[in-house]
């Protein structure tokens, strides 16, 4: 069995210049995707105070309510994307999730927010499976991890903008206006996607187009995935990573507010800001920038090292998963806020290295006619486990330590963050195990 990747045939459904344009448009759309998904995290404390919510309800609002519909609807929409116009699917999705983000600002109670967040999840379900499939048609196989990693930069970039913008707007005008501002740009980019993105199946060579046009049943697609041990190992490893990342995200701001409130107020006053605005800006700029670098670096490392040994696609995220654990624990155990914020950038960078390698692996081990389905199944596993249960369970752990164990809200959220970070050991083990099968599955 060869250890090196074989370059794919040269297929140019679009020009190099247009490919760059399309990748930038998709990146901006995915940034808006995560902006609308994550802005709620910096708004969690004021929402909790105004509506009188518990931490588990914050977890439900930010996680399970969104994730169930996001993951379940991803598969039927992906099946449509295997044969219909993917740019139009993406455009419709952007319009829907943006509209429901705006509606979050009109919520009067917990259940209003739940319904609005469900709507955001319904809209976002159509974006990434279609986008991954589209990118895989735009670029050759040997550059796929880098291209998908570039698209995946939207995750930390959207989080950056969401945290910074959300905190500043909430300080000035309240959390409701922050939701409205977050949702507004989506209307414009829905039109950009609809009228400027090309469906490349029309430009592909006849033999490749014929393969892409083949209708593979969902059962047959699952049967193919069932034979790919690498897919399931990588999917579960990424799901645990998502559980950690999504689970901790709604409570990082709460951790700083509850443990370092006086210092935050002092630091914020230096810049003429309130605490929420300063913290959102700090977490957004420092954590978001680190996440962008990590997502880009993961794709580049996987493609370059994978050209010599395909196992690099799982070794890179395995090492990153292990290295991030002690750094995260160190950050949340710091006695002061500023060192904690600075140290937190390192596990954030390492925590995004898996995006490119994992999503590229899912695209590279299946036939073109089932790429969107492969992406949707992968996202179902990642998001149902990670986004669905991560925030809910981390919030529940925080409530248990704060209440029944009598540690108080500040220590409760701190221990919830520490305990959840230790799950990175499971991700490391699963990624490391995938080294044994990835060469066989990718070459096949």
Please give the largest β-sheet. none
Estimated radius of gyration: 21 Å
Low-confidence stretches: 1-10
CATH class: Mainly Alpha
Structural class: mainly alpha
Number of helices: 22
**How many DSSP-defined strands?**
0
Percentage of residues in helical conformation = over 70%
SSE order: HHHHHHHHHHHHHHHHHHHHHH
Instruction: Tell the overall outline.
Output: globular
* Count of structural domains: 1
CATH overall fold name: Growth Hormone, Chain: A
CATH homologous superfamily title: MFS general substrate transporter like domains
Proportion of residues in extended strands: under 5%
Domain Major facilitator superfamily (MFS) profile: 22-439
Keywords: Membrane, Transmembrane, Transmembrane helix, Transport
InterPro entries: MFS, MFS_dom, MFS_spinster-like, MFS_trans_sf
Transmembrane segments: 21-44, 56-77, 89-108, 114-135, 147-169, 175-198, 231-257, 277-298, 310-331, 337-356, 377-401, 413-432
Keywords, separated by commas or semicolons:
single chain, 444 residues, mainly alpha, Growth Hormone, Chain: A, 80% helix, disordered N terminus
3D structure, described in words:
Keywords: Membrane, Transmembrane, Transmembrane helix, Transport. It is a single chain. This protein is mainly alpha-helical. It has one domain: Growth Hormone, Chain: A (Up-down Bundle), CATH 1.20.1250.20. 80% of the residues lie in helices and 0% in strands. It is built from 22 helices and no strands. It has helices spanning 16-42, 44-51, 55-81, 86-104, 110-124, 128-138, 144-152, 154-173, 175-183, 185-196, 206-213, 218-226, 229-259, 261-270, 275-306, 312-332, 337-351, 355-364, 371-402, 408-421, 424-433, 438-443.
């Amino acid at each position: 069995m060869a250890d090196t990747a074989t370059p794919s045939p040269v297929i140019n459904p679009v020009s190099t210049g247009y490919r760059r344009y399309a990748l930038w448009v998709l990146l901006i759309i995915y940034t808006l995707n995560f902006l609308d998904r994550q802005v709620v995290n910096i708004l969690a404390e004021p929402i909790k105070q105004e509506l009188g919510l518990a931490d588990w309800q914050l977890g439900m609002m930010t996680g399970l309510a969104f994730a169930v519909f996001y993951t379940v609807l991803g598969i039927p929409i992906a099946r449509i994307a295997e044969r219909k116009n993917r740019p139009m699917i993406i455009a419709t999705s952007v319009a829907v999730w943006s509209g429901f983000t705006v509606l979050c600002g009109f919520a009067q109670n917990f259940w209003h927010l739940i319904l609005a967040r469900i709507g955001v999840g319904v809209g976002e379900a159509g974006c990434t499976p279609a986008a991954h499939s589209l990118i895989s048609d735009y670029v050759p196989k040997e550059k796929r991890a880098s291209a998908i990693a570039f698209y995946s930069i939207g995750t930390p970039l959207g989080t950056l903008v969401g945290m910074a913008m959300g905190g500043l707007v909430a300080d000035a005008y309240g959390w409701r206006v922050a939701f409205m501002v977050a949702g507004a740009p989506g209307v414009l980019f829905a039109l950009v996607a609809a009228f400027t993105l090309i469906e490349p199946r029309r430009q592909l060579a006849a033999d490749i187009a014929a393969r892409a046009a083949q209708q593979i049943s969902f059962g047959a697609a699952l049967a193919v995935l069932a034979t790919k041990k690498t897919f399931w190992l990588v999917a579960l490893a990424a799901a645990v990573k998502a559980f950690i990342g999504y689970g901790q995200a709604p409570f990082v701001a709460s951790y700083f507010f509850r443990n370092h409130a006086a210092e935050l107020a002092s630091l914020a006053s230096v810049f003429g800001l309130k605490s929420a605005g300063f913290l959102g800006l700090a977490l957004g700029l420092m954590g978001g920038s680190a996440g962008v670098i990590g997502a880009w670096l993961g794709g580049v490392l996987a493609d370059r090292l994978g050209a010599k040994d395909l196992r690099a696609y799982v070794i890179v995220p395995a090492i990153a998963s292990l290295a991030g654990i002690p750094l995260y624990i160190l950050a949340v155990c710091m006695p002061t806020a500023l060192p904690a914020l600075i140290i937190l950038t390192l596990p954030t960078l390492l925590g995004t290295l898996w995006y490119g390698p994992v999503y590229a692996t899912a695209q590279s081990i299946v036939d073109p006619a089932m790429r969107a389905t492969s992406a949707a199944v992968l996202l179902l596993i990642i998001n149902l486990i990670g986004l669905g249960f991560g925030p809910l369970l981390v919030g529940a752990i925080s409530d248990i330590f704060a209440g029944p164990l009598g540690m108080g809200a500040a220590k409760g959220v701190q221990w919830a963050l520490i305990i959840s970070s230790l799950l990175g050991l499971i991700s490391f083990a699963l990624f490391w195990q995938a080294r044994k099968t990835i060469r066989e599955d990718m070459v096949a």
